Amino acid sequence: MTTCEDAGLQRSKESADHVTDNRSIEIPPDAGRSWWLLDALADDPSPSSPQLRGDVTADVVILGGGYTGMWTALHLTELDPGVDVVILEQDICGGGPSGRNGGFVNSFWGDLHYLVDRFGDEAAIALCEAGEDSVRALGTFADDHKIDAWYRGDGEYVVAASEHQVGGWADGVITADRLGVSEHFQVLSKDEMRERISSPVFHGALFRKVGATVQPARLARGMRRVLIERGVRIFEDTPVTRFGVGDPAIAETGSGSVRAGSAVIALNAWAHHWKPFRRTVVVRGSYIVLTAPAPEELERIGWTDGSGLADMRSAIHYVRTTPDGRIAFGLGGMQPNLARSIGPRFAYDEHAIRIAIDDLRRMFPGFADVPIEAAWGGPIDVAGHHLPTFGMLGRGNVHYGHGYTGNGVGPSHLGGKIIANRILGKTDPVLDLPLVDLEPLRFPPEPIRSPGALVANTAIRRKDEAEDDGKEPNPLIDFVARLPRRLGYNLGP
Ligand SMILES: Cc1cc2nc3c(=O)[nH]c(=O)nc-3n(C[C@H](O)[C@H](O)[C@H](O)COP(=O)(O)OP(=O)(O)OC[C@H]3O[C@@H](n4cnc5c(N)ncnc54)[C@H](O)[C@@H]3O)c2cc1C
User: Fold this and answer.
1) What pTM was computed for the model?
2) Peptide bond before residue 447 is cis, with ω within 30 degrees of 0
3) Ligand 1 centre from 360 Cα, in Å?
4) I want to staple 86 with a disulfide (CB 3.0 to 4.6 A). Which of 58, 60, 246, 453 is the partner?
């Protein structure tokens, strides 16, 4: 009988090559907060918000002070300046993934092929265009409100970082061509890509013209500042401990409660802890390491604009630079444990951080001697169709938005617009988009879900690592890695 270990599901020999000596890598300690947030807080003059004390009422109570919650509140107050909104956040606004992410502002153009397959041509294009509007809207919002969020709309590269990944973009490009929207994409040969950004592992790329990067926590803290200016009541350090889906909806905290006509559950991966979402959102970890400034090395490899770069692995590498010449290198698709709940290893996991540093130095060997100054992680809300959904519970007065699967910076702007319009009973074309009330794909129940996800996730990463090393993955690993897609999920290879 073949056991998991025999089959290499622990760490396969072939894939161990480029990480065997990573124990010697010096890693920065857990700073508690992301480097982005520490930078943003140093530049944020607004006082901290109080905890909720006592019982209050509001028109709308929002659970979660990340982008989804805050964009909803921003759209609400734009559409109806008189609306009375309360936000309850367990930490500080932007303390979660909205202040910890890679800062890639994506539209949905990268999902075009899947969207067409699932929703048809017209709905797919409408969603991509709405996503594109949100990418630009973030830049306009930052300008209008004088938020120094480092917004750069320079597009993004999807690189083949191994020969296996070459042409992985073909379906999307063919679909774009058929639909007459190929101006959004440009295929680059190995030499053309290396001329733009030089790495010995790049074998070609797709350049997507719509895409931006931001300093994510500066954006989050700027959004919070604008909300306070508009009179939105924000309570921080205020975890919601009980929630009643009724009319009114009631959010209870340890020291008070909010009764409101409408409620918004904007809890991202934490929604997994809530019964209605336990089988529709699962949690993965994503981790980022940040180098010291090395502008001369960025100049040498030709990366002097604000473009983002990701490879085509299932456990994706996402990489961007900062204005002072650092590289922020991200590693997605990690699972520090059975992931039944969000523990401290989602915020900082030594094992994942060592792998990320190793992978960074493999992609950009010129950074081998550049110190790593910070490292952190955060939880990702994985949905089976790899798309967010914006739906309603109860009598239609409780709204939710999640399932970004690690791509929420741009889409949460759109999600906030959808939710705000629904709450206020407005009509807007965004309400016709296929993400509205999108029926989620359900994951298996426990005790199958967590161990099954861990095995599949481990296989996916082993397959990626073998292919990075130019090797064929073990056939059993390959089989297990492809299982989620075979079972109908839009996840994995
Ligand atoms: C390391 C990392 C890198 C990423 N990189 C990118 C990227 O480059 N581009 C991209 O598009 N996306 C990226 N993402 C995903 C992106 O950050 C999210 O999709 C986005 O921030 C979602 O916003 P949100 O408001 O829904 O969630 P969050 O920012 O997580 O906000 C939810 C909030 O709810 C709060 N909360 C939880 N439970 C409670 C409770 N009981 N009571 C009160 N408050 C509660 C949390 O503290 C949190 O602040 C990344 C994520 C991570 C972790």
Assistant:
1) 0.95
2) yes
3) 24
4) 58
